[in-house]
């Protein structure tokens, strides 16, 4: 949720996203115009959370949400396919010489783990934020090397490998 704070003649826009607090001093002196910007940021944050909008410039979160920059389109996964079939098609397509062998091996390991935990027969169009969170919860309870807890970095890398199939 975004809110405004009065700073002299101007307004300070403050909002939270993914646990971080962001601020931007607006050039607006008019309360209605500042409220409009805050409402726009609220809508964009909601769209981000639902996966309907992607930041045009992920490195500059504040300006991407406040300014009228065209959003990056959300790429739709092919429908009607199962997760297993999608991974089976994807792995040979990247191993045709564009990546090093070690990278392909790591990618294959990560995607096989995703396929095993989420289920080979899971329909791609049914994958939601909740199903990805369930994957993270399941993997975080698993044991890693030598019986130690699985590293969060490993889970993150598995999800990045999975997300790479969308681009």
Describe the structure.
The chain is built from six helices and three strands. The protein is elongated and about 60 Å long. The mean pLDDT is 85. The chain has two domains: 2-66, no CATH class; 83-164. A hairpin with a 2-residue loop joins strand 1 (2-7) and strand 2 (10-17). Helices cover 49% and strands 12% of the residues. It has 167 residues and is mainly alpha-helical. Strands 1-2-3 form a three-stranded antiparallel β-sheet.
Question: Concise description?
Answer:
This protein is mainly alpha-helical. The chain is 49% helix and 12% strand.
Give unreliable regions as ranges. none
Number of helices: 6
- Which structural category fits the helices and strands? mainly alpha
Number of strands: 3
Describe the strand arrangement of the main beta sheet, using strand numbers.
1-2-3
Question: What are its keywords?
Answer:
167 residues, mainly alpha, 2 domains, three-stranded antiparallel sheet, 6 helices, 12% strand
List the helices and strands and how they pair.
Blueprint: E1 2-7, E2 10-17, E3 20-25, H1 31-50, H2 61-66, H3 83-94, H4 101-118, H5 129-141, H6 152-164
Antiparallel strand pairs: 1-2, 2-3
Helix pairs in contact: 3-4, 4-6
């Amino acid at each position: 949720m975004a809110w405004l704070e009065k700073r002299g003649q101007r307004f300070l826009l403050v909002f939270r996203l993914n646990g971080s607090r962001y601020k931007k001093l607006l050039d607006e002196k008019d309360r209605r115009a500042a409220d409009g910007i805050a409402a726009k940021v609220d809508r964009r944050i909601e769209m981000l959370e639902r996966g309907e909008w992607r930041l045009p410039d992920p490195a500059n979160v504040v300006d991407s949400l406040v300014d009228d920059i065209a959003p990056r389109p959300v790429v739709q996964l092919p429908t009607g396919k199962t997760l297993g079939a999608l991974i089976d098609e994807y792995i040979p397509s990247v191993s045709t010489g564009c990546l090093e062998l070690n990278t392909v091996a790591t990618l294959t390991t990560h995607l096989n783990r995703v396929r095993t935990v989420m289920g080979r027969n899971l329909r791609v169009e049914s994958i939601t934020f909740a199903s990805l969170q369930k994957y993270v919860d399941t993997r975080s309870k698993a044991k890693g090397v030598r019986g130690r807890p699985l590293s969060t970095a490993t889970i993150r890398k598995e999800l990045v490998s999975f997300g790479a199939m969308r681009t």
